């Protein structure tokens, strides 16, 4: 009893689910002699069975096979005994019996078939046998001469015996392939060899079936040349164990034969061929032979001439038919005719993408296939479901069709070879390709194991626990949780496949590339030069040089550039300066093209590539800024990265950056770096039309605030140390003025500021003043000093007494000066005073001093109003640059920024004492408040705000287009057509409509001037 318990326990550990029954079967008299022979060879049968996918199934089928073979002294019994005694044949036999009930039943019906698993039959190298050798064996099985031009089965082979012989020959070959597959040490690695071996066996069976069909016709039907062209997985040399075999027939009359008669004979041969492999008979059918991929499908003739095929594909074929032809390969019959068919069809395949909506239709077809999967099968469908085999296959095929026109190196018919070629050519990322390759192999091996069980054409993962356990063990996933582990692994594989499929198959560049002509895609010099000139490049030869520099060579970067440029050249041409855009793209690519993310991002994200092309061909400012901060290209794929940063977020980032630095100048550069990022973020948004009209001003101002805050913190520490003090002797404050104070900065704006300090109790005032002066000087130096970060010029000329006054004053000094000496223009300037850096309490105290001056309770006396009007008139006449038409100067000209701002500020000075809503530093906010308070009529407020916004946008556009933030022309609406075109495009005008901008500005400024004269000068 103890011995029996220990034996059943051991059998259970080996994987038998019913250990008691297994013990009884192992002791069965029919199996005993074979078990003894195996044990004598040093391989106990129970242990060998325990290494199979389903030990119970293997044992049961082996017992049945032993019974069918008779005693070990019989012929079949001796064969079985020999197989079980030899290590590798035994492994092959038991592996087959432990997974495939169908192949096991075949062996039980014909025990002599175990001889096919012996090494002397070549099973050790069965996966590497040449296709010609396999064909020869199949033809000889039906009595045909493999060396004949037209093999015909012999007299006996031409009837039912021939059909039976070809089917038995095929099944022997399939048994050998399955045995080699199931005992492979690396099933995923060997999968392509297995699939190719099955495809070769199918092709050989088709040749043998055709030979049998010819034997039934007078003269062997030699009046017709018939080629069988494999399609789908047959043509791709990657067949399943059980699959529809897709074929197309091509026929030509033999020399001297009548074409009509040849077509009738060809049709008869094709029909007979299908019957011989697919119809019910004494021997089971092999697989369905499907000719529905032929022209016109089921409604078309079964057999066509080559000319008829070509005529159909030239005139009537749909996009999906060319996708199917991608795998077309002659597999049987007249090989010369099959090759001629392939050579004639090949050029059509890779031009099919030029058909309207080819890519979109292919993508839609994939979605339709998924939509028709029954809901109950969606998660079990290995082939058609999301994350299944079709996702990989369609992805590879679409990329091959789109890019294969210009690149013959990516035209393999086989999925995995095609994927490897696409990776080598840079069409798919290496890591993505490796993951797809692994997962595709895994899914196909699972599919094979599922099909082998009953030799049925299925792609559904089983649901029963016993079936899942057997499937898991067959792919090396063992243990009590094998079924659940396999299910989880499959779920992960499908998630990752689906993600990559959606990322690549729906890649935005694909439809755009497909619409280009072959010449455009190939970038051939002459065709490219003509296209470049036609779409707007001023220097096609120079552009060709840039293209050559980007695409020459065999590097991965060059390959990806060859994919990108045909589409991006068109996008550059949509901008006002395509030549400059291409040049900037070349420089950027040369700088960062070797990084792993840059070209991959452009290839996989059409939005990013399109945005980059638009930026580079529109704005030299952005092109230069990206050259200094190339990692910002990644922002174009992420809306969050392009969103404005909050003041609080910038402060936190500044603190973190400064904490990691030790040198004072490096700490100051942290704030300048954040400002540089802000400038670029604002510029990108403005060129791309993101956000509202004040978005850029807000971002630029926050960046300047951040830079000032960083510089002040550094300057205080540095100045204190220079004077040998333990702590600062004063509180410090930087007050923003002008456009900085109004949060209305542009790309060319300086930072107008006031420096304030307040000595601490007990501090020596003279020392405190010297330290404060050093602080102000350091702030200006740290922000204006040459460095990798763009400078921010700090201008303190709006301080009391202007340039003649001290750089910084104490709070008390400001209070005294403003109480005794304040000028009208200083009151006006203080309207924009906004503390931006330093001590918060000191900021409140400073505001308490200036608020009565800028928001006077009793309004302005008439003398002050007259003074402001005189100053405004003098500014208009004295500061206008010579040689500039006043009506084109958007700052000082009539209706320009100056008119609007002086008008608004005068009204603020007169009414802010009684209208709190007017106490704002922003021009547009003040205008809104003036309108809401009934001080400015709605139409007048609209005219002023429209002129102010348009002038501000023109100023920014001039800088963005030219890349120059300084110069006497920075505030002048350009005269030159090319310059005006750039500015107009940046402001959203259609190409060629630059004069509309000119007319709009002159009209808007004229109306604003009339309002200003009415409100300011009365």
UniProtKB/TrEMBL annotation:
<dbReference type="InterPro" id="IPR005190">
    <property type="entry name" value="GlnE_rpt_dom"/>
</dbReference>
<feature type="domain" description="PII-uridylyltransferase/Glutamine-synthetase adenylyltransferase">
    <location>
        <begin position="872"/>
        <end position="1016"/>
    </location>
</feature>
<keyword id="KW-0511">Multifunctional enzyme</keyword>
<keyword id="KW-0547">Nucleotide-binding</keyword>
<dbReference type="InterPro" id="IPR013546">
    <property type="entry name" value="PII_UdlTrfase/GS_AdlTrfase"/>
</dbReference>
<dbReference type="InterPro" id="IPR023057">
    <property type="entry name" value="GlnE"/>
</dbReference>
<keyword id="KW-0808">Transferase</keyword>
<protein>
    <submittedName>
        <fullName>Bifunctional [glutamine synthetase] adenylyltransferase/[glutamine synthetase]-adenylyl-L-tyrosine phosphorylase</fullName>
    </submittedName>
</protein>
<keyword id="KW-0067">ATP-binding</keyword>
<dbReference type="InterPro" id="IPR043519">
    <property type="entry name" value="NT_sf"/>
</dbReference>
<dbReference type="Pfam" id="PF08335">
    <property type="entry name" value="GlnD_UR_UTase"/>
</dbReference>
<feature type="domain" description="Glutamate-ammonia ligase adenylyltransferase repeated">
    <location>
        <begin position="92"/>
        <end position="339"/>
    </location>
</feature>
<keyword id="KW-0548">Nucleotidyltransferase</keyword>
<keyword id="KW-0460">Magnesium</keyword>
<dbReference type="Pfam" id="PF03710">
    <property type="entry name" value="GlnE"/>
</dbReference>
<feature type="domain" description="Glutamate-ammonia ligase adenylyltransferase repeated">
    <location>
        <begin position="610"/>
        <end position="847"/>
    </location>
</feature>
<dbReference type="GO" id="GO:0016779">
    <property type="term" value="F:nucleotidyltransferase activity"/>
</dbReference>
<feature type="domain" description="PII-uridylyltransferase/Glutamine-synthetase adenylyltransferase">
    <location>
        <begin position="364"/>
        <end position="505"/>
    </location>
</feature>
């Amino acid at each position: 009893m103890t011995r029996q318990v220990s034996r059943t326990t051991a059998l259970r550990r080996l994987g038998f689910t019913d250990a008691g029954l297994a013990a009884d079967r192992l002791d069965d008299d029919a199996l005993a002699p074979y078990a003894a022979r195996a044990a004598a060879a040093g391989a106990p049968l129970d242990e060998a069975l325990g290494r199979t996918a389903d030990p119970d199934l293997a044992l049961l089928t082996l017992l049945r096979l032993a019974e069918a073979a008779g005693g070990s002294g019989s012929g079949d019994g001796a064969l079985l005994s020999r197989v079980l005694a030899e290590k590798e044949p035994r492994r092959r036999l038991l592996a087959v019996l432990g997974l495939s009930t169908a192949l096991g039943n075949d062996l039980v019906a014909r025990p002599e078939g175990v001889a096919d698993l012996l090494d002397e039959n070549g099973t050790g190298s069965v996966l590497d046998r040449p296709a010609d050798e396999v064909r020869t064996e199949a033809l000889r099985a039906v009595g045909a001469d493999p060396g004949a031009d037209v093999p015909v089965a012999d007299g006996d082979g031409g009837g039912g015996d021939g059909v039976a012989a070809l089917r038995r020959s095929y099944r022997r070959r399939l048994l050998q392939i399955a045995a080699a597959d199931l005992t492979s040490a690396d099933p995923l690695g060997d999968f392509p060899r297995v699939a190719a071996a099955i495809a070769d066996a199918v092709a050989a069976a088709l040749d043998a079936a055709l030979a049998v069909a010819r034997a039934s016709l007078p003269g062997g039907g030699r009046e017709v040349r018939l080629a069988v062209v494999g399609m789908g997985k047959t043509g791709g040399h990657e067949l399943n164990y059980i699959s529809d075999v897709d074929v197309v027939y091509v026929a030509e009359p033999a020399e001297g034969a009548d074409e009509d008669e040849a077509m009738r004979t060809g049709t008869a041969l094709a029909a007979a061929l299908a019957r011989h492999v697919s119809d019910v008979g004494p021997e089971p059918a092999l697989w369905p032979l499907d000719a529905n991929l032929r022209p016109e499908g089921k409604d078309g003739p079964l057999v066509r001439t080559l000319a008829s095929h070509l005529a159909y594909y030239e005139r009537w074929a749909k996009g999906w038919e060319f996708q199917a032809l991608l795998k077309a390969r002659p597999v049987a019959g007249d090989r010369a005719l099959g090759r001629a068919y392939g050579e004639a069809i090949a050029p059509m395949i890779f031009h099919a993408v030029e058909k309207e909506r080819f890519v979109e239709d292919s993508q839609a077809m994939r979605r339709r296939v998924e939509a028709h999967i029954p809901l109950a099968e969606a998660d079990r469908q290995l082939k058609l479901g999301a994350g299944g085999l079709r996702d990989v296959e369609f992805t590879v095929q679409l990329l091959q069709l789109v890019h294969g026109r210009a690149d013959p190196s990516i035209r393999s018919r086989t999925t995995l070879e095609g994927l490897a070629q696409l990776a080598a050519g840079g069409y798919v990322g290496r890591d993505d390709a490796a993951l797809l390759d692994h997962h595709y192999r895994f899914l196909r091996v699972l599919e094979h194991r599922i099909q082998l069980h009953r030799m049925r054409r299925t792609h559904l993962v089983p649901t029963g626990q016993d079936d899942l356990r057997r499937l898991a063990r067959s792919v090396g996933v063992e243990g009590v949780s094998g079924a659940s582990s396999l299910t989880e692994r499959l779920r992960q594989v499908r998630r990752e496949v689906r993600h990559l499929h959606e990322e690549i198959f729906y890649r935005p560049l694909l439809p755009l590339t497909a619409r280009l002509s072959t010449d455009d895609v190939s970038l051939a010099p002459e065709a490219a030069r003509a296209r470049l000139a036609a779409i707007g490049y001023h220097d096609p030869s120079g552009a060709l040089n840039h293209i050559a520099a980007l695409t020459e060579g065999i590097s991965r970067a060059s390959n990806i550039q060859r994919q990108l440029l045909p589409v991006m050249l068109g996008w550059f041409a949509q901008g006002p300066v395509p030549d400059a855009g291409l040049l900037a793209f070349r420089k950027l690519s040369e700088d960062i093209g070797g990084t792993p993310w840059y070209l991959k991002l452009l290839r996989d994200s059409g939005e990013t590539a399109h945005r980059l092309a638009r930026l580079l061909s529109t704005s030299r400012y952005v092109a230069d800024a990206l050259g200094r901060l190339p990692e910002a290209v990644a922002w174009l794929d992420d809306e969050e990265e392009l969103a404005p940063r909050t003041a609080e977020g910038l402060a936190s980032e500044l603190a973190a950056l400064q904490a990691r630095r030790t040198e004072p100048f490096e700490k100051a550069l942290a704030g300048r770096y954040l400002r540089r990022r802000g400038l670029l973020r604002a510029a990108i948004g403005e060129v791309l039309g993101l956000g509202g009209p004040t978005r850029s001003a807000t971002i630029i101002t926050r960046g300047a605030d951040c830079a000032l805050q960083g510089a002040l913190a550094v300057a205080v520490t540095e100045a204190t140390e220079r004077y040998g003090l333990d702590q600062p002797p004063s509180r410090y404050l930087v007050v923003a003025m002008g456009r900085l104070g109004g949060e209305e900065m542009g790309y060319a704006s300086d930072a107008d500021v006031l420096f304030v300090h307040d000595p601490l109790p007990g501090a020596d005032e003279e020392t405190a003043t010297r330290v404060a002066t050093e602080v102000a000087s350091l702030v200006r130096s740290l922000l204006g000093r040459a460095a990798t970060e763009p400078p921010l010029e700090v201008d303190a000329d709006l301080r009391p007494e202007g340039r003649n006054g001290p750089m910084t004053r104490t709070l008390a000094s400001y209070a005294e000066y403003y109480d005794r000496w304040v000028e009208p223009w200083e009151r006006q300037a203080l309207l924009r005073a906004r503390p931006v850096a330093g001590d918060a309490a000191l900021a409140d105290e400073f505001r308490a001093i200036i608020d009565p001056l800028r928001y006077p309770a009793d309004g302005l006396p008439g003398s002050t109003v007259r003074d402001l009007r005189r100053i405004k008139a003098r500014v208009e006449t004295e500061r206008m640059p010579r040689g500039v038409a006043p009506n084109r100067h958007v700052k000082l000209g009539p209706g320009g920024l100056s008119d609007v701002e002086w008008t608004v500020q005068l009204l603020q000075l007169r009414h802010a004492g009684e209208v709190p809503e007017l106490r704002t530093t922003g021009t547009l906010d003040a205008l809104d408040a003036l309108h809401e308070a009934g001080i400015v009529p709605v139409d007048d407020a609209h005219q002023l705000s429209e002129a102010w916004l348009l002038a501000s946008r023109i100023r920014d556009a001039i800088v963005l287009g030219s890349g120059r933030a300084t110069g006497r022309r920075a505030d002048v609406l350009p005269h030159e057509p090319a310059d005006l075109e750039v500015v107009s495009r940046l402001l959203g005008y259609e190409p060629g409509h630059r004069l509309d901008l000119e007319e709009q500005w002159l009209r808007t400024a004229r109306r604003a001037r009339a309002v200003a004269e009415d409100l300011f000068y009365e």
